[in-house]
């Protein structure tokens, strides 16, 4: 039994929503405690008349912290849904070229590539900062730099497989191609890390190094949770269909509007 495009897409939506929920739980349990520590630094800065304009202290906040957490969780689910749709479309196109003994393995490989290209690489170059770090006037520049690194990460994820296919057409052996793929990835990542300007924000002296480190690790944990959950759940959903009939190596649109 073949998979229609609608079947793949629905499983991507389901997996994306669950991945967003898992990421939201990670925000609540792992990221939020670090954010509250950062807000304490902002409040102390405000009390002592720090030069940096506080985003939290100095009056009642426009939106309560509880509302911010709930809004962040809702945003996480929406982001997960969107990523799940894109993930399903990409999986449908490249399933036959992904390594792995089954659809769970293939899905996890694709999730690992997605995490590395659109989450890990940007985080290495433009790392996340807690509320006590960052100048509001540089938000636009930071966002632009982050988007540039993200797009370059996607480009690397597209260029390296294309290189591998070109080498395969020339009869290059699998071990040699794998070695060249690794060299290409490392070289391109180094180029991105060196060529793209770093974040324009300096870390204030009153922000403990442990706080900065904990926040960046927690932020990566949130993203890793999203991608891991997406890859695992999506793979299991597709694999379940595979048990009910043979799934073709390339999933495509069987019929417009088919289930």
Automatic annotation (TrEMBL):
InterPro entries: CbtA_put. It comes from the Bacteria. Keywords: Membrane, Transmembrane, Transmembrane helix. Pfam families: CbtA. This is Cobalt transporter CbtA. The chain crosses the membrane at residues 12-31, 69-92, 104-124, 144-167, 179-197, 217-238.
């Amino acid at each position: 039994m073949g998979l229609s495009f609608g079947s793949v897409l629905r499983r991507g939506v389901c997996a994306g929503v669950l991945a967003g929920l898992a990421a939201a739980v990670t925000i609540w349990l792992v990221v939020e405690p670090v954010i509250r520590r950062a807000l304490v630094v902002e409040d102390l800065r405000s009390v002592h008349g720090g030069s940096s304009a506080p985003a939290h202290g100095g009056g009642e906040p426009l939106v309560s912290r509880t509302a911010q957490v709930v809004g962040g969780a809702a945003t996480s689910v929406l982001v997960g849904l969107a990523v799940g749709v894109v993930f399903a479309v990409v999986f449908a196109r490249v399933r036959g070229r992904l390594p792995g003994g089954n659809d769970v393995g293939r899905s996890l490989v694709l999730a690992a590539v997605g995490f590395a290209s659109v989450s890990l690489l940007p985080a290495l170059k433009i790392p996340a900062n807690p509320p006590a770090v960052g100048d509001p006037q540089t938000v636009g520049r930071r966002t632009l730099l982050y988007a540039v690194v993200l797009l370059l990460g996607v480009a690397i994820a597209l260029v390296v497989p294309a290189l591998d296919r070109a080498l395969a057409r020339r009869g290059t052996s699998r071990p040699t191609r794998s070695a060249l793929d690794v060299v290409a990835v490392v070289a391109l990542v180094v180029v991105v890390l060196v060529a793209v300007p770093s974040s324009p924000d300096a870390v204030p002296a009153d922000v403990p190094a442990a706080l900065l480190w904990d926040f960046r690790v927690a932020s990566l944990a949130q993203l890793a949770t999203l991608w891991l959950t997406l890859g695992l759940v999506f793979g299991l959903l597709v694999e379940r269909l595979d048990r009910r009939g043979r799934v073709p190596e390339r999933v495509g649109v069987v019929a417009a509007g088919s289930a």
